[in-house]
Amino acid sequence: MSIVRRRSAVAVAAASLVVGVLVGCSSTPAAPTTDNGASGTGKLTIGIADDEPGVSAKSGSTYAGFDIETAQYVAGKLGVPSANITWKPVDPAERISALQSGAVDLVIATFSITDERKKEVSFAGPYFVAHQDLLIRRNDVAITGPETLDGRILCAASGTTSADYVKAHYAGKITLRQVPTFSECVRNLANGDVDAVSTDDLILAGYAAEPEYKGVLKVVGKGFTDERYGVGVKLGDTAMVDKVNAALKEYISSGAWKTALEKTVGPSGYDIPSPPTVGG
Question: Could you list the residue range(s) of the whole structural domain that residue 168 is in?
């Protein structure tokens, strides 16, 4: 064999080896592409509630509910697959500090947008508008709204707009008992230790539909505030706010928003409203 022919053969063999290596590599799953704007690692830690049936609650080894569906959709649009989400339960009073400390990248936990909170965290959204209401025992006909709570014991979770509203508008007329979570409030109500629980109608409907409370508790059904749920972001992170807003707009326009609500809170009989204007 001539030198030229030997060199050609070597070149062909080398090329075949390279192709073989490339083909072998192509069978390895590619790492998920990311654009999460949080840490650049393709992962997100999201602060959530873990005791709001239909909205955000522990389900086996993971979590389920409308807020969880919303979080998964947003994360996906940021390039983060569900497997790369770390769910971090936070009590209502801890949501702001969790963002400020960097313990979470986002908070999606029935987190109402208010001017006071905007001084400490940024918000994307809103992605839902709920209304503060009352949960009472089913046989109670005396409580028909907040104006009929004189002399009664009302329970609300600490660090929520529900507690703030009651203190601001009914101070001195109602005994307000604050506890860390609404699930504790609901247990106290069922046990007869308090007369009513106040928070958003979306959350209350989920509790009323739970097997242990069905036929025992009921929602009054006269909302008296607007609660605009936002996605909490670290203060000043406008890039993340813009990305989440874009994701939320697609969530609504695609129909996934309505589908998520029908799947999670629809079974409670909750009347699903029209979607809000994101960024409005």
Answer: 132-219
